[in-house]
Specification:
Layout (H helix, E strand, L loop, with lengths): L6 H16 L10 E6 L2 E5 L3 E2 L2 E2 L3 E8 L3 H9 L1 H7 L3 E11 L2 E8 L8 E12 L10 E8 L13 E2 L1 E12 L13 E12 L6 H27 L7
Parallel strand pairs: 8-10
Antiparallel strand pairs: 1-2, 2-5, 3-4, 5-12, 6-7, 7-8, 8-9, 9-11, 11-12
The chain binds the ligand O=S(=O)(CCO)c1ccc(-c2ccc(C3CCCC3)c([C@@H]3C[C@@H]3c3ccccn3)c2)cc1.
The ligand O=S(=O)(CCO)c1ccc(-c2ccc(C3CCCC3)c([C@@H]3C[C@@H]3c3ccccn3)c2)cc1 binds next to strand 7, strand 8, strand 11, strand 12 and helix 4.
């Protein structure tokens, strides 16, 4: 895959997104406001507009018991599961499988009244990251989704308005080895998830509508997705 023309972009974007995801909400600049909380899940956003369009960056942190960072990233990245957990997805096309860890997608999302329907074209890359603190724990895993232009899917030609998104899912597996020295089970693991996303809606949509959509959809999405991964992995061997 390192020979693919997108490779330099992917390397750069993954590095920048991961370093930003690692920053706590206190560190990466002021202005993060907590807008949703549910148990271990905390969702923050910054109110930002670009050319009058709401592009509120979102940062969610969550800790989920019984699953690993690899399992979370694998179910987020792999196309075969997406219709199971992405409720706003209307249609997904795998445009090109660049390599086993890099895929080009075109997706249409269900229309969210009164905004017009949206579609997205993006590359998606999954990668294991060496743990820079050199702690003995398992490595980090990440998936980065980044909008890109594709000649075969020109923007804003059909019924859909093209959204522009940058998404980073960064996962750290936490292992609490059993006292009796026995094998590690799912009761001894949890996953610290950081989900960052910036979605430029691409065309005009009322700020109040978009903020209401974000407030409703993001918590639902992260809760549903993590519950889905738990259900798919609970009786299976742990994959780190
Ligand atoms: O993490 S991903 O890569 C997962 C792969 O599918 C991803 C996440 C979110 C989107 C997305 C695309 C469009 C829209 C809006 C913009 C104007 C009208 C529709 C939204 C709004 C924010 C709301 C939303 C949030 C979460 C899930 C779905 N909907 C989100 C796309 C991809």
């Amino acid at each position: 895959a390192s020979s693919h023309p997108l490779w330099p972009d992917i390397e750069r974007k993954v590095a920048s997104q991961v370093s930003m995801a690692k920053l706590g909400v206190g560190e990466c600049g002021a202005g993060w406001q907590l807008f949703a909380e549910d148990g271990e899940m905390k969702m923050y956003r910054r109110e930002e507009e670009v050319d009058g369009l709401v592009v509120d960056p979102l940062k969610a942190v969550h800790v989920v018991k019984g699953i690993t960072g690899f399992e979370v990233c694998h179910h987020f990245f792999s196309p075969q599961y997406r219709y199971d957990w992405e409720t706003t997805l209307e249609h997904m096309v795998v445009v090109e499988t660049i390599s086993e860890d890099t895929i080009l997608f075109q997706q249409t999302h269900k229309r969210i009244w009164p905004a017009s329907q949206r579609d997205a074209v993006f590359w998606s890359h999954m990668r294991r990251l060496p743990d820079d603190q050199d702690r003995e724990g398992p490595d980090l895993w990440t998936v980065v989704n980044q909008s890109t232009e594709l000649p075969q899917y020109p923007a804003n030609t059909g019924k859909c308005v093209r959204v522009y998104l940058t998404v980073c899912l960064l996962c750290q597996t936490l292992v609490n080895p059993p006292k009796n020295g026995g094998p590690v089970t799912r009761d001894d693991i949890s996953c610290k998830i950081t989900y960052c996303s910036v979605v430029n809606p691409g065309g005009w949509a009322p700020a109040s509508v978009l903020r209401a959509v974000y407030k409703r959809e993001y918590p639902k999405f992260l809760k549903r997705f993590t519950a889905y991964v738990m259900s798919k992995t609970k009786d299976k061997p742990i994959r780190f």
